[in-house]
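All the exercises in this workshop are built on plain-text protein records. A learned vocabulary of local backbone shapes supplies the integers on the structure line. Once this layout is familiar, the rest of the handout is easier to follow. An example says more than a description, so a record of this kind follows:
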Amino acid sequence: MKLLACILLFFLGISASGNLYGQEEESAAVSLEANTDEFQECFFEALKQKGIENYDKAINQLLECKGLDPSNTVVDHELAKAYLASEQPLQALEYGIAALQADPANLWYLETLVTAALRQGNTLEMLKGRIPYGNTRLRENLARVFYFKNDYQAALEVLKDLERSRFSEQLRALVRDSLERNQAEAMPMEKEENPLEAYRSSLQELLEKQDYGALEELSLEALEQFPSYPYFYYARGLVLNHGARYALAASVMEEGLDYLLDDPALAAEMYRALAAAYTGLGNISKANMYLSKIKSGS
């Protein structure tokens, strides 16, 4: 599903913006053609230094390029990327804004800017005030960027500001699908991460299957791990009742009653199981006492 989503968004990007990879390369080429040999030498040296992760030298070379051609947006974007790579998001943000203001429809300028903004702790609302947010293509790209960064709520916020279109409806469907999938994945994860709930769920499942052999071991383990959880005393009592170990069943469940707080449904089940245990022991008066507690709800 994720792969299909990526493919769909890729084609959405092409249909909405043209081939942006080619667009950026062409833009860079045109910009460089118009500059001097000195600028080109400086620019390519910057790319070389950035490629070997020597970001300080790359930034210095790009700043020289900026001095030679102050209005070159390709240089602004490369400076934003270099500052970002060198963990200087504040400077990256400033050059990213300059590049995007000159070319609001450029997806890659926007992606770099959003990355820098998020590292600075900027919210979507803070970002809106610093970019030409009225540009429709920019908003479409921004929704796409947030989607690929898995920030689905931010993507939906941007989509709310867009007029309905084939692009917006398709992206909205993908975002909602991702949110639903994340929610579904979070539920079993939460269950796995909560050992108490995991024990309870497993015990209930074994009780439904009447698998008393497995219940014997698991109920004892659950009680050892959580000795103040009343349901585990109840489960243990049922196992003992099933094995006709009535005295021990009664003792275990009566101990569990000490931990029972404001759970009338579990209380009724425990009283019923205690009545069965005392009936097995031949103590009818004690059995009737617990049965009367079920009727009175006390």
Summary: Residues 1-32 have pLDDT under 50 and may be disordered. The chain is about 80% helix and 0% strand.
